[in-house]
Amino acid sequence: MLPLLGLVAAAAAALVWAVPFAWMVTASLRPGVPADVAALWPAPPLGFGNYLDAWQSGDFPTWYLNTVLVCGGILAVQLVTVTMAGYAFARLRFPGRDVVFVLFLLQLLLVPTLLIAPNLTTIVALGLYDRLPGIMAPYFASAFGAFLMRQAFRAIPRDFEEAAMLDGAGVFALIRHVLVPLARPSLIAFAIVSVTFHWNEFLWPLMAVSSPSRQVLTVGLASFASGSEAGGEWGVLAAGTVLVGGPLLLAFLVFQRRFVSSFVFTGLKG
Amino acid sequence: MPRQRAGTLRIRARPWLLLAPSLVFLLAFTYWPLVQVLEGSFRDQAFGSVASWGIGNYTRLLADPHFGRAAWNNVLYAAGTIVPSVLLALGFALALRETTLFTMAARTLVVLPLLIPLVAAAALFTFVFLPGEGLLDWYLGPFGLRAVNWLGSPSLALGAVCAITVWKNTGSYMLAGVPQELLDAARIDGARAVARFRHVTLPMLGPTFGFVLPIALVNALVQVDQVVTVTQGGPSDSTNLLLYYIYQQAEQNHDAGLAAAATVIGVAALLVLTMASLRTMERGIHYES
Questions:
Q1: How many CB atoms lie within 10 A of CB A249?
Q2: What number is the ipTM of this complex?
Q3: Taking the model in full, what pTM does it have?
């Protein structure tokens, strides 16, 4: 009796959870300014006029390009840094390892977002202000990714490496051709979490660039949203939100199992 | 012989070679900023004069009512986001623990907000909270909750800001924050479920909470996007949060000293609270075994 009651309550709550999404999709498909703009089910007349308006009033092609470049750039560098560090922590013994490990741990708490004020000074000093690499640089090292790869490498039996070593392979060749293919599930899980985090990040990209041509989707959406709210164009606002959040939502619905296992597997960190 | 020495040197250098790329960036964007804010917070920079050392920035910070308000709001924001989302996550996880098509669909709905940016969630919730034609007023108005200006009222705005974060975070705590043994402990039917929950699940909540807490605290400090885009800390400072205050000092007032001192306080609070929660967790585990 009690589990059934819980199930019903949870299902009802889950439906409430979906209300903002139901409104977003509905409102984005209803052109003009209908009186019942709060409707949650798309009733005709429907059309893509709001998407057209959104696309024309924001610079979406630039925002998409910059967001893809930022996410891709961060991920490309991270995959190298976390693989190398993960291997060192998993397989090598060296003096000072525990100290370095704790130093890495620190980044799990002192996330770059918290350190925006000093990091802004740093990227200005490095000449990276108002450039996409300036948005990316604070994330090139990932303690979380290094730990994840450490665990992944530890789960791989040493026999594989010893065989490769006997063939005379160097350590980098060993990592690339033996360990990385075996640790692929962890690398994919890390990639999913990393891209999700950086696609959605707002405050740092807002501070690190000033030129409109270097803005990412979230920063673009913020300026776009305040405009359409002021004009009461809720349908256009909903369409713009779909354009920003849509790609990841779509990827999630298609690869749901992969996403969920990544989130479960990797814990809460981005 | 020299060949062999070169070999051992290479082996000795290997870990550092592998760690170097990470350490360079950690140095530049995690450790150096700490040194930088500590130094900057004790440097009193007056216009046209040489910088001197002192606690001027901290006295100015503590004298600034906006800072006090932001710090206190952040405490409320932490409590008002962590407690509801963890409890809701636990409820969802327990109620939807069986794997059927139905529970999977329900779980998907709760997880979806994880995928969209907080600014997008904020944009959607400006309409949820819009007085008159917005979602809350439109559907709850008939029940007497009419024309409440959720985001515009100083007494309600922080609650509304919390609601956005709770909506966004619950899914992630549901997926990752509730360990399997907790669910297994609760997996029993009939009247015994209540007893099991009281005597098994609840006592285990302490350690679980201690484990989730550090990450949740980081979230409570950094998830301020909706404040930046929607409320701008208002009305009358009621939704000002620590990181938004830092952002304003660094970006708008160009007051590096205040930004540095406020960052030091945020970092210190985070470190102390994390240590405390980890210690509680240790004690909890000890108690269990």
A1: 18
A2: 0.92
A3: 0.90
Tally of domains within chain A: 1
Q: Which of residues 111-130 of A touch B (CB under 8 A)?
A: 111-122
A115: chain B residues, CB-CB within 8 Å: 29-30, 33-34, 37, 263
Task: Using alpha carbons, select from B119, B127, B99, B130 the residue that is nearest to residue B228.
Answer: B119
At B212, the amino acid letter reads V
ω into B65 cis (within 30 of 0): no
Q: Measured between alpha carbons, how far is A24 from B178 in angstroms, rounded to an integer?
A: 30
A159-194 pLDDT tens trace: 878 877 777 778 888 898 889 999 999 999 999 999
Chain A residues within 8 A of B127 when measuring between CB atoms: 23, 27, 38, 234, 237-238
Q: Band of the pLDDT at B288, cuts 50, 70, 90?
A: very low
Domains of chain B: 65-288 (1.10.3720.10)
> CA distances (Å), B184 to each of B116, B187, B257, in order?
31, 5, 52
Handedness of CA B130, B134, B138, B143 (dihedral sign): negative
CA dihedral A264, B118, B212, B98 (to 10 degrees): -40
In a domain, residue A224? The reply is: yes
Q: What is the CATH number of the domain that holds A81?
A: 1.10.3720.10
Q: Are B57 and B256 in contact (CB under 8 A)?
A: no
Q: Which residue numbers in chain A have pLDDT < 50?
A: 268-270
The answer to whether the beta carbons of residues A189 and A266 sit under 8 Å apart is: yes
Domain membership of residue A30 (yes or no) is: no
Q: Are B199 and B176 in contact (CB under 8 A)?
A: no
Count of A–B CB contacts within 8 Å?
276
Residue range of the domain that includes A85:
48-266
A40 within a domain of the structure (yes/no): no
